[in-house]
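Appendix B: complex inputs.
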Amino acid sequence: MSTPADTERAAAAPDGFDELIHAPVRLRLCAALDHAREIEFGTMMTMLDISKSALSKHLSALTEAGYVTQRRAVRDSRQRVWLRLTDTGRAAYRGHVAALHRIVGSSQD
Amino acid sequence: METHEPISRDEASAALALTEHSRARVAWAGYPAWYWLLSGAGLGAVAYLIMSPGNWDLLGAAAVAVLLIGVTRAASRARGICEGHFRSAMTLREKLLLSGPAALVMVAGAFASKFAGWVPAVAATAVFALYAGTGLAMGARADRR
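Resulting structure:
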């Protein structure tokens, strides 16, 4: 059985390009979380304009890789789930963005 | 180890555009209108208190600042985005666009208030209008994207 760290190693190339993050929805999800401490599940659904099941699927992949954590909190007798990028996830996302910049930059030469 | 297919420059540019879109949404979208109105009013009140002669100006400004922190926390919960105390999704340019004009009015008002008694009220109103107006406009723009 693979551990989150194994999944991460399989997803990220040495140059930082990360196949797991590169999928458009997951890229937007990680980009949003990189600029916030936490984002609520419902807000993320609205932001990405996707269904609950689709967001859950993408979150499962990122959570399994150790990139995202989910925190449940009750407020006004309503349970809300808050999403947060882990340190590993933040490093992977920023590495991926750096790889994208390199691709754009190197193509300009 | 699994290797990735190289992507083109256009694909990489498109991916970077997606990340910028997400950042802009986190920075501006979803704020309730009352947040911009209360923040603008609070900053206007701070400007008025600082420019007006009196002994309670700093204490009053500190009290308004505490209220503004509470407003910011309530807005974070309402929009479902917690940016944290020291993190902001806004770029430096966006921060200057939002706060720069109001800050300039405060500085100019502080100078001009030595010469005319009506300046603090006018400056406070201008600070409110500039800050709340910019916030509402940028928020509406981000919500439409």
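The longest strand of chain A covers residues 68-75.
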